[in-house]
Specification:
244 residues; cell membrane; 11 helices; 0% strand
């Protein structure tokens, strides 16, 4: 029964995470509720995210929605930011991490109401001071704390006028990059409980493919409202966890 629950948790969390980010705030609490040790739950999340993220990126790449020329350069920025964030995290208290997370998400939420509401999405992703700094900064946030990383990246790509479907592929590649090192670390440490992780992974891959198909058909007018709802829910959950 636990395996079936984890499968559907993976489907729901990754479908939402693919479309708007924040999937980890569904899957991680669910695993903890089912009694998984914290390190095993995080390890399962990283391993399943690594596999499902690559599957959704590869699907969009195979359909020519995204190219390696456009996307490959973001890998070192995400990895470098993640490593930097991990190093900084060791010097910050959990309370300060929650404050940083809430401030960044509120900032993204407010700025989403500024500027164009219907970006044409005609521009390719290119290395620039804004894109490079933004990706590295979000990578630092992912290494520091993580919840809402995909949501923040979607806001960044919207600001850069990147088409939503391509943005989804780019976010999933960045998520794969940031999760790869962490997943390997958890595997080598022996924290991963493989039967439970494989059940979550199967659901996550299913959710990733479902999310990609929904993203391809989603009316662009609905993207920002969905992002705003997900962002608001993440902020509320983070504040509730910190207060309670």
């Amino acid at each position: 029964m636990v395996y079936i629950i984890l499968f559907f948790v993976g489907v729901i969390a990754t479908t939402i995470g693919t479309l708007a980010g924040g999937g980890g705030l569904i899957s991680l609490p669910a695993m903890l509720f089912l009694g998984m040790p914290i390190h095993s739950a995080i390890g399962a999340n990283k391993v399943s995210n690594m596999v499902s993220s690559f599957s959704s990126f590869f699907t969009l790449y195979r359909r020519n929605q995204i190219s390696l020329k456009e996307s490959s350069w973001l890998i070192p920025f995400s990895l470098g930011g993640g490593i930097t964030g991990g190093l900084i995290a060791s010097h910050l208290s959990p309370e300060n991490l929650y404050v940083i997370a809430v401030i960044l998400l509120i900032f993204a939420f407010v700025t989403s109401f500024i500027g164009k509401t219907k970006p044409k999405g005609a521009k390719p992703l290119k290395l620039s001071p804004v894109s490079g700094t933004g990706l590295f900064g979000i990578g630092i946030y992912d290494g520091l704390f993580g919840p809402g990383q995909g949501t923040l990246m979607l806001y960044l790509f919207s600001y850069l006028n990147i088409a939503y479907v391509r943005s989804v592929g780019l976010v999933r590649l960045a998520t794969f990059s940031s999760c790869f090192g962490a997943a390997i670390s958890y595997i080598l440490s022996g924290a991963v409980i493989w039967p439970l992780t494989l059940a979550l992974m199967a659901g996550s891959v299913t959710g990733a493919q479902l999310g990609v198909r929904i993203a391809e058909k989603l009316n662009p007018d609905y993207v920002k409202p969905i992002l705003r709802v997900v962002t608001a829910l993440i902020i509320v959950q983070l504040i509730a966890e910190n207060v309670l």
